[in-house]
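As a warm-up, study this chain.
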Amino acid sequence: MTNKQAFSVLIVDDDVQYCEMLAVFLQAKGYQVQQAHDGSSAQELCVRQTYSCILLDVNMPTVNGATFLQLLRAFSFTPVIMCSATSDEGEMVRFFQLGADDYVVKPIRMNELEARISATIRRSVPNESINLDDDTLYVEPRTRTVVINGRSVKLTPSEFHILTVLMTRPSQLVSRRELVESLYPNVEYTGGFRVLDVHISNIRSKLTSSTNPTGDIITSVYGVGYVYNGVKPRV
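Now compare it with the structure written out below.
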């Protein structure tokens, strides 16, 4: 990413001093930065304008991080990186299930955070790559359209990225390490593979319904990786 001035970041955190410090750092890296110190103010900003990425604190007054994320996902798939003081796996899983793209634990190493922001925004920017069409599953990267058996599905940028990587290598084992490195290029990622596993679970859930029983679309090879099997047509 070379022209970061074209990208905007919204920092949502009730710690004003922390926000100022982070804003100064990101502005020096070339990002446009705005701040909100509670969930209600952040909601108002997101209704009026769009952002390239949102850094979202978990615990805030008026509207907490979980509620804000649920409300945001009702109308926007702007990439969201959760910033939490706890490394509790249950909490991390909950936020990924609510639609977060990434989860970092405070205190955050600034250079790593900036690399994660850059990677997250890169995944969210539409590209002109070839459409992926598996008879009953259609994926169009430019508009991020996903349609399965005629049903439109909304994926977060991270979920969309993982699905397209797997679809370009049908019936092949893609290791967890390779998928994580594709999510976080040029980042010394230390978060383990639980993040990836939750994203895969979300993809499966979204592509599956009572009329589209496609739970085996992605097979897990325990401890190793995942295989895209394609979608079985409805009968």
